Every structure is written in C-alpha cells, then in structure tokens.
Input
Amino acid sequence: MQRVQVTPRSFPKNLIDKDWSKRKITHKNVNIPEFLDVIHDMEIREDDVWVVTLPKSGTTWMQELLWLLLNNCDFEGALSTHQELRSPFLEFNFYINEDIEDSLKPVQELQSPRLIKSHLALPLLPSKLWLGTNKVIYVFRNPLDAWVSLYYHGVTTGPNYGKTLEQYFDEQVSSQEYVTEIIEHAYEFYQLRKEPWIFYTSFERMKKDLQGVINDVSKFLNKPVSEEQMERLLKHLSFEEMKKNPTTNHLWERAHKAHTTHKNAGKEKHNFVRRGKVNGYKDELKPEQIEKVNVWIEKSLKENSITMEELLLLNESYKNTL
Output
C-alpha cells in the first residue's frame, strides 16, 4: 500500500517539546493535504468532546460510552439512531467524496454537545484543540490486534477480499516507518495523559475493568451516573450487546460507502464488532509474522523510551490522575 508523506501547517509545540521537524506522517489518501488545511483551521465549540484513536482500537466502544454520558444515558436514543449520525467521523465525508467544501458538513450541522471521532494524529487535528480547552479521549490498542481486526473489516468492505491475512500483513505492515508512525500516534497522547483535558486509556484496560473506566470517564466529563445507570451501561456496552446492536456495527457507514466500495464488498461478511478479544492475534498470525512486526515495534518503542505495557496501561504502577 503506497502512502504519501504529509506535513501539517504547524505543530503543537506548546504541548510537547521535541524536534517536530523529524516527525514523519504519511497517509494513504494522496489528495489529503488540502483537507488537512481545512482541519487545521477548523472552528470548534467550547463543549465539543473528541474521541481520537487509531482504527479498530475500541473507538466504537468508547464512542458509545461517551455519547451516553453526554446525553444523560439516553439508551432509547442510542438504540434508535446510528452511531455515525450521533457522533460523526471527522474524516468520513472527505474519504468518500473528496469534496473539500462539504467535508465537514456532518460535524458542522450537529447540535451541541458534539462528540467527534477522528483517527488523525495529534499534529493533524484542529490547532484550536491544542489550546486544551476541550475534552479529548484517546484509546490505544495493541497494534497487532488492531491490524488483524482491520483486515477482517477490509474483507467485508472489499479491498481485502480474496487476500489471506498473511498477504494483508505483508502489505499493511510493510515498513519500519509505518510502525513508527503508529507508535508515535499513541505516544504523543500518552505524554499528555496528565493534562486535565486529556483522558488516555486502552482497549485492554476497558476489557479488564469496564466499570472502572466508566467511573473515570464520568468524572473526567463531570457526568455522574447512578447505580441504575451503571448497571444499564455495563449491559449496553457488553460485547454481546454491542455485537448484535445494528446502530454500533457501522451499517449506515457501509451503505453510504456503497458507491465507492470495492466491487467484492459484501461477498464475505464479518461483523464490525467481531471478536473483541485481547491478544487474539496470537490465534491468527504466524509466529514469524509476529516476530517480524515485534522487532519493528520494539525499535520504535525504544526510540521513544516507552514500553508497550505502559502504552496499554498494563503496568501495575499506573494510576489514573483525574
């Protein structure tokens, strides 16, 4: 997969002191620079809440939790409206139509409080976010699990149909630079985890202690929940309920991508909420693939003086700093 290097108009030097000139960012969409300028200058509202992740890293799971907290646990509303309409994906319109003029229309037309999803790296997000006046939630996941999940998503939507997981991995994780970019995407938010406007967590932590994460996020957003609401949240956000919920399986998104989707889309279907397993990649990838990628991951981690255990919040010393 060919990727092009992109350079933002400016960098968040006020947040992280480092040599930003060495920060390399690539993107699979060759026409994205003009869109990124629009994002850079984007107006944001004071009550906007943002959820930022890499793809297939627990985004939908966290979005559902955040939307419910921001909307007084309106479970009926959540079950009756597709998540993409309640909490739009910032980049979606551009990826589908490449229409700069209307690219932000779904976000701009959304009533406050807006919950906005993005997969963009910190330097590519709206520069006004760097002022630290909005709430931002970041979720990281073991990249190997995220990539396997992304493969199956691509099988359903078409581009990966007919490819083996091994072939996909060889194409997707094809360079040290790409792996480094993934680690830096997470590490930059990890460095900001003690800022009062950033909530950093992981898919693995959500799996281990969902109730604890709900409690922490509710405090972060100043949206307390009752015992009854907590009970309903735990059920609504369970893997079993999320998997069978049509509003959280991106059916709306697939329908609106139909005109641009690969011709083989739908010939083999995998639920968007598929396995929801930690370390599931070990069941599906060959040992030599895992070893090869882990060498690249470890190199990137070492360059940033961080460990995967820290990024995933698996170390026992981690304490939420709310």
